[in-house]
Records
---
Amino acid sequence: MSKSFSIDLNRYSLGRTIGGSKKLLERKLDVSDLISVLMDEGFSEFNETRVYHQLHGHDMAGFRSLITSGVLGVPRHAYVTITAFGKDNQQLVVEFDY
């Protein structure tokens, strides 16, 4: 069985506070951030190997909630294939095979 969804990383960013101020320094998200969220959700088998990093900061557009809703009902032993395409590889198709 398989399930898949797509994501456009251009729509998402992560904001971190600068020092003690309330100003946010924003950065775009990439495949490593997607893999980190999936690992936090319990997935461990990927077609890519990346070093895990915890996603710290203010999730500016609900990236984590989009991922968690996309993996509802998917067994955590599923094999995750991530395919990038588009300008700067910012569009991703995430497929779960189980």
Note: The chain has one domain: 2-97.
---
Amino acid sequence: MNKGDLISFKPEYSGHDDWSNPAIVLYQFHPESHPEMWVVWCEGDMCVIDEENYDVAHLTSSLQESA
């Protein structure tokens, strides 16, 4: 994940239809000690997710070229 990515996430062992609403990646939580943890903005709240316990679907990428 990168800052600015638009994602959807769900806990790894939840149901197939339990994806979050779109969320924007804001920043890494503690890059030095926990590089897998990210702060995202979803439904008006800041949430902390990690790439080890959540499935993440990239809806757009901050690295996409503009058309």
Note: The domain at 6-60 is CATH 2.30.30 (SH3 type barrels.).
